[in-house]
């Protein structure tokens, strides 16, 4: 029997688990291989003189043991296989994941989708290449350009001013970007699309991938929020099913692996260079990956292997029920997107109550201990995970009912009501890039008063998190509008990250 190794070439199965990890293949080879391997290794009566120093839980520090027990530590074992050059249970688990997710090759990631995006962009593009990508990409795409020396050619996705959210990238926007580069005698190294967005809105990946392939350009998709796509008839098709070449997914978001664990997939199209992506991952990932994180990815694969759609039935039904009930509540509006979107995401507008999403988020937490996924200026976005519980949905609906009755007659901030109150322009409509992300990242920096930063080249990436979409990027000229947006986010109560001065009274600029 033959297997695919990390370089995508075939190797003999006999070479691949010759007892290298001292555990008989028969003990782990069945699904889920990594979970089985951890179980077998943990059960052995061994005398350990290695790492981790908690000594399979013997020396686990009490405060955490008291909280989570010793079992977790007992299975925190490093010698199960090698993530960088897997030959045993990790290789087998990745192979099974590739089958389940429809990839020709899958890598397990312990640095989140952030690491997958870094490896995808570094692995597909070369330094100096141009990358077509939406300006509302996650910050990891910007840091990938710092690492790789790739130059952005931004697409500005359609902006919904009423809801104050960016929406999707259209095939014609991609076409236009490719053409504009062609006029300059350039061919992009890749096209990069974020789909779905944080609000669950999907770009037409099928058409975009056909367009990219017509021009022989690889398509990378940030599918951080769509790892569950394709596993239920009511869910959109996955990016791989629609022809994307390299896809990074946060398995730990809607799916159910441990936080920080993600997957990077390559399609059977064979446009992307698997060996190069593999070398990038060997450069980017730790040499001591947590076997618990990896096993949690393996457990997801095993769960999705059998009758996956039944796993999502109740969450989809409850999300529909919640939508129908919440949209009846006075002063509350539910976002309806006309094209493909995730039925497990619900974006609820509270602007008619004169509230911001941040204020509504605080209210729901204080009133019903409801935790939303993404508060925004005019709405909150909720994610319905598999096995969503009816009692929680009832609390959510009750919370919105209470919110409505508390504010419908005495709106707090009347001006939030006005369409376009927040911005009457797209937040990024005047981007002016003077230095590439990499040049700006390594340029000499200077801290200046925020008012003096206007007109200067930005030296830092600042964004509200979530969603992690940069407001300022290193290398872009800081405009008055950008400062206004940043300060507004802060005043609204958004968690703003990345700023050298968290108070935003000063900013880092490039001293060039
Ligand atoms: C669109 C998008 N891409 C990528 C990421 C990064 O994913 P991770 O947190 O798994 O590194 C996120 C995280 O929120 C995201 O929202």
Automatic annotation (TrEMBL):
InterPro entries listed in its UniProt record: Orn/Lys/Arg_deCO2ase_major_dom, Orn_Lys_Arg_decarboxylase-I, Prn/Lys/Arg_de-COase_C, Prn/Lys/Arg_de-COase_C_sf, PyrdxlP-dep_Trfase, PyrdxlP-dep_Trfase_major
MF annotations from Gene Ontology: carboxy-lyase activity
Keyword match Lyase: yes
Domain Orn/Lys/Arg decarboxylases family 1 pyridoxal-P attachment site: 32-336
Cofactor: pyridoxal 5'-phosphate
Boundaries of every Orn/Lys/Arg decarboxylase C-terminal domain copy: 427-488
Keywords noted in UniProt: Decarboxylase, Lyase, Pyridoxal phosphate
Family stated for the protein in its record: Belongs to the Orn/Lys/Arg decarboxylase class-I family.
Record protein name field: Orn/Lys/Arg decarboxylases family 1 pyridoxal-P attachment site domain-containing protein
Native organism: Spinacia oleracea
Higher taxonomy: Eukaryota, Viridiplantae, Streptophyta, Embryophyta, Tracheophyta
């Amino acid at each position: 029997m033959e297997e695919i190794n990390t370089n995508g070439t075939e190797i003999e199965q006999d070479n691949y688990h010759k007892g290298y990890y001292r555990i008989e293949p028969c003990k782990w080879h069945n699904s889920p291989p990594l979970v089985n391997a951890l179980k077998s290794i943990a059960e052995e009566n061994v005398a350990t003189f290695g790492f981790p120093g908690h000594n399979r839980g013997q020396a686990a520090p009490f405060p955490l043991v008291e909280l989570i027990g010793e079992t977790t530590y007992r299975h925190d074992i490093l010698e199960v296989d090698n993530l960088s050059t897997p030959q045993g249970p990790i290789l087998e688990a990745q192979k099974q994941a590739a089958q389940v997710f429809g990839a020709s090759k899958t890598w397990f990631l312990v640095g989140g989708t952030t690491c997958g995006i870094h490896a995808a962009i570094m692995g597909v593009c070369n330094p100096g290449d141009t990358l077509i990508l939406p300006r509302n990409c996650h910050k990891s795409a910007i840091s990938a350009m710092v690492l790789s020396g790739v130059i952005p050619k931004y697409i500005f996705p359609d902006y919904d001013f009423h809801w104050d959210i960016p929406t999707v990238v259209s095939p014609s926007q991609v076409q236009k970007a490719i053409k504009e580069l062609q006029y300059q005698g350039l061919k992009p190294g890749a096209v990069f699309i974020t789909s779905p967005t944080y609000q669950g809105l999907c770009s037409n990946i099928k058409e975009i991938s056909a367009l990219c392939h017509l021009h022989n350009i690889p398509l990378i998709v940030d599918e951080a929020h769509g790892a569950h796509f394709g596993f239920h008839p009511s869910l959109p098709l996955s990016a791989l099913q629609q022809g994307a070449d390299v896809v990074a997914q946060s398995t730990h978001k809607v799916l159910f692996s441990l936080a920080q664990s993600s997957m990077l997939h390559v399609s059977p199209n064979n446009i992307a260079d698997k060996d190069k992506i593999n070398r990038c991952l060997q450069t980017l990932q730790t040499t001591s990956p947590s076997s618990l994180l990896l096993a949690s990815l393996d457990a997801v694969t095993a769960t999705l292997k059998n009758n996956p759609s039944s796993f999502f039935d109740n969450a989809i039904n409850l999300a529909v029920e919640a939508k129908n009930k919440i949209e009846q509540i006075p002063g509350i509006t539910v976002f309806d997107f006309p094209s493909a979107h995730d039925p497990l995401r619900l974006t609820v507008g509270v602007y008619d109550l004169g509230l911001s999403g941040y204020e509504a988020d605080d209210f729901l937490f204080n009133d019903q201990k409801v935790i939303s996924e993404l508060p925004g200026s005019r709405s909150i976005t909720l994610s319905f995970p598999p096995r969503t519980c009816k009692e929680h949905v009832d609390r959510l609906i009750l919370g919105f009912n209470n919110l409505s009755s508390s504010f419908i007659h005495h709106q707090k901030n009347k001006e939030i009501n006005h369409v376009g109150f927040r911005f009457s322009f797209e937040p990024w409509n005047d981007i002016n890039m003077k230095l590439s992300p990499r040049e700006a990242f390594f340029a000499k920096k200077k801290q200046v008063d925020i008012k003096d930063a206007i007109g200067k080249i930005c030296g830092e990436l600042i964004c509200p998190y979530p969603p992690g979409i940069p407001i300022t990027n290193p290398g872009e000229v800081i405009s008055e509008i950008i400062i206004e947006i940043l300060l507004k986010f802060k005043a609204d109560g958004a968690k703003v990250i990345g700023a050298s001065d968290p108070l935003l009274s000063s900013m880092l600029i490039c001293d060039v």
